[in-house]
Amino acid sequence: MESYLAELQLVSQAVLAVSRPLSTRDALEVIVGSACTLVGARYAALGVPDDDGSFGEFVVAGMTQAQQRAIGPLPRQHGMLAALLTAGAPERLADIRQDPRFGGWWPAAHPELTGFLGVPVKNGDDVLGIIFVANKRSGEEFTDRDEKLLTLFAAHAAIALTNARLYERSRELSVLEERARLARELHDAVSQRLFSIRAHTRAAELLIVKDPDRAAAELAAIAELGAQAHGELRAVIDGLAPPELDGLAESLRRYAELAGRAHGVTVRLTAADVPDLAPRAQGAAFRVAQEALHNALRHSGASEVSITLSRTRRRVILEVADNGTGFDPELASAGLGLTSMRERAAAVGGALRISSTPGAGTTVRMEVTQ
Questions:
Q1: Which CATH number is 244-370's, of 3.30.565.10, 3.60.110.10, 3.40.630.10, 3.40.50.300?
Q2: Which residue ranges does the chain devote to CATH 3.30.565.10?
Q3: Cα–Cα distance for residue pair 324/333, rounded to 1 Å
């Protein structure tokens, strides 16, 4: 009974390693260590191949860091390791040294391996890596039961690796989307102002001799446009940097003043006595307000925008409303950042609602539990 409970505990550790917010390598180390103990092996390893004939990840149990350093570089994809990767099927050997696929040598500091059990780590038909154990402590051969247990641990490793790949792809997509958003922001906020500055500069050049007063007016317009471009660029930069909030209401007030001056639009802030939210919730609310205010100032044609921060007994409510042209939310462009706002709200357990009708303005409302 005690042995059975110990096995359940080790399997549970592997399951939790996949579900807890561990790094991929930490999760693999738990899986390999548990597998090594459960099948009674002296050594275990899990390798994830790279594109250069070696391994991008190679997690080892049964050897110290000093021993691993003494062995030298990571193994290449050859011999039995290559066979496991290529065939995608388990291999159980009484003595790996007697198998014709064995390369015939190990580095000087490498332990002498005899009994061997290896299984592929697979996601469907895709071989993500291999996990193997060697040298059973009892001196006996690895059994069919050992193979089934190792296959179970390989399945957990496949989940960890698949999740890591999905996260990496999601992060790459987020980077691409953020670069596209930045390009749009810079185009909207700066390039049009710079084009106007060039036009006014050309006019001033032509008028400087024959109409000095009009040339002076053009230069004044250039100065004003330059100040506006500077303000808008500041707003873009502030939007890219992680928010360092001095209280949500005060940070919104400062940003509203800056953005309103840059666009020549009145932005009013009304803030009730709102208790401090968790830092992540404050950051999400601030970013939603930034995006909603940006949309109102750049796209709605509004003459006035209001930001309201209020509370109920359990919720903090943020509203950004404008008196602009409005739009049909069902037909809204992805460039308005509506998806981004919804995702930011959802990430902190909040909800976002957008109310707009063509010709009747827009209201963005975010609610988050205190």
A1: 3.30.565.10
A2: 244-370
A3: 16
**Global confidence as pTM:** 0.49
Where do the CATH 3.30.450.40 domains begin and end in the chain? 2-169
- CATH class of the 2-169 domain in this structure: alpha beta
Question: Among all chains, which residue has been given the structure tokens 């409303």?
Answer: 321
The runs of H, that is alpha helices, within 93-143 are none
Instruction: State the angle between helix axes of 248-263 and 279-299 in degrees (0 to 180), rounded to the nearest 10.
Output: 20
The per-residue pLDDT string of the chain (370 residues; one tens digit each, 9 = 90 and over) reads 455 456 656 666 655 555 555 567 777 888 888 888 888 999 999 998 888 888 888 989 999 888 988 988 888 888 888 888 888 889 999 999 998 888 777 888 889 999 999 999 988 888 888 999 999 999 999 999 899 888 888 888 888 888 777 776 777 766 676 676 666 666 655 666 676 787 778 888 888 888 888 888 888 888 877 777 777 676 666 655 545 566 888 888 888 887 787 778 889 999 877 666 788 888 888 889 988 888 888 788 889 999 999 988 888 999 999 999 888 777 655 555 677 788 888 888 889 999 988 888 999 999 998 7
194-229 exposure pattern, b = at least 16 Cβ within 10 A, e = fewer: eebbeebeebbeebeeeeeeebeebbebbeebeebb
DSSP for 152-186 reads HHHHHHHHHHHHHHHHHHHHHHHHHHHHHHHHHHH
